[in-house]
Write a structure and sequence with these properties.
It contains six helices and seven strands. By secondary structure, it is α/β, with parallel strands linked by helices. Strands 3-2-4-5-1-6-7 form a seven-stranded mixed β-sheet, with helices on both faces.
Length: 180
């Protein structure tokens, strides 16, 4: 099978998660679905429930809003790992910061999280699909926290894209190959 990493990026509702799931399901192998979302409100809880119901029965869900590299290393091995998504992981890290947020400290937290994720991938023998939003195409956020977040997510995406075998940009449900 061999180690392989595919990064799928795109805007909100661009079809990233559906396409990621399609790629993994196509192989008809068991998968570890790493969920970084937390159900902070009823609407998000409903979204999570719908996503969970749409996953194959031979997939195991690992809820890991933080420390996903370590969580994946501690999980049973699977031929596929689907991480959905880096966007929420970086947001979850921001939510752990005390006010006022220290930009350097926050960015260091994100770097450590990416280090752990990349280290976990480097010792895993299966195929990975990682989902993240591309937030660098829009306006510059008008407030510091928005800029800290956008910059941290952009750097995290760059780190993953650098080691990825493939990078795909989803636009209106259409996958566009960025790196192969």
């Amino acid at each position: 099978m061999g180690q392989q990493l595919t990064l799928i990026m795109g805007g909100a509702r661009s079809g990233k998660s559906d396409y990621a799931q399609f790629l993994v399901q196509e192989d008809e192998q068991p998968a570890l679905f790493v969920a970084t979302a937390t159900a902070g409100d009823e609407e998000m809880a409903n979204r999570i429930a719908v996503h969970r119901a749409n996953r194959p029965e031979n997939w195991q869900t690992l809820e890991a809003p933080l420390n996903i590299g370590t969580a994946i290393q501690n999980a049973p091995p699977f031929p596929w790992v689907l991480v959905d998504c880096i966007t929420l992981l970086v947001s979850n890290l921001l939510m752990t910061c005390a006010e006022p947020v220290d930009e350097r400290g926050y960015h260091a937290m994100v770097e450590r999280e990416m280090d752990e994720l990349i280290a976990s991938y480097s010792i895993h023998t299966g195929k990975w699909v990682v989902v993240s939003n591309e937030v660098g195409l829009g306006l510059v956020p008008a407030y510091p926290l928005g800029r800290y977040y956008r910059d941290a997510l952009g750097r995290a995406n760059q780190r993953i894209a650098k080691i990825a075998d493939r990078a795909i940009l989803m636009v209106a449900g259409i996958p566009m190959i960025v790196k192969e």
